[in-house]
Amino acid sequence: MTFHILTIFLKIFDSYLTESLVKRAREKGILAIRVHDLRDFASGRHKKVDDRPFGGGPGMVLQVGPIYRAVQSLTRARKKRRVILFSTRGKKLDAKTAKRLSAYKELVLICGRYEGVDERVARHIADEEISIGEYVLSGGELPALVLIEAVSRFLPGFLGKRESLEEFKGSYPSWSRPEVFVPKKGEAWAVPKALLSGDHKKIEKWRRQK
Ligand code: SAH
Description:
Elements: E1 2-7, H1 12-16, H2 20-27, E2 32-37, E3 50-51, E4 61-62, H3 64-74, E5 81-92, H4 95-101, E6 106-110, H5 119-125, E7 128-131, H6 141-152, E8 180-181, E9 189-190, H7 200-209
Parallel strand pairs: 1-2, 1-6, 5-6, 5-7
Antiparallel strand pairs: 3-4, 8-9
Helix pairs in contact: 3-5, 4-6
S-adenosyl-L-homocysteine (SAH) binds at residues 86-88, 111-113, 115-117, 131-133, 135-137, 139-140, 143.
Subunit structure: Homodimer.
Function: Specifically methylates guanosine-37 in various tRNAs.
GO biological process, one term: tRNA N1-guanine methylation
């Protein structure tokens, strides 16, 4: 799976995508991530990618031209590619959507900024609009990272043996050592007895109840 990120803030992606599970997956060749600078697709000397909204109003809007040219420049496996625009008006991201998206060969992630993106991107370029929740962020970069991680968990080989795909539905609370933690004030915080029994059937049942 290749994730193409279209953004004007490339550096945001440097640290996160070079750590942890995503890093390991990139090294193993399970996924590839390409960050593209929208300014490379701007016309004119000033490499402008935004302009004022028609009809007035505050702020600037990302223009359709650079986004169009950027998406055009990438495209090879059109059929197995999905172009996603991050938008506060999009469909809310959930595990089901992430799983569905994991079947594509390429995901193109368009990160909005400022007051948003010229509506022609949503209407003519993107296959779908996705929101990561009912709040407004200053750009689509964090949503892109969230989506990459949520989708990647469904790619074969991304998770180690010990991590389970069913985690979302079957998630249960965990405890670790020490068995008893003594806070400065009040009673000790003990680990539930059921987990210390060594009886795996009993533990399984207890976890399911939780
Ligand atoms: N004025 C716009 C907000 C723009 S925020 C509005 O009211 O909808 C700038 C960009 O950040 C958006 O274009 C989008 O790409 C991204 N963004 C902000 N919040 C988001 C969210 N909850 N989910 C997905 N993308 C978001």
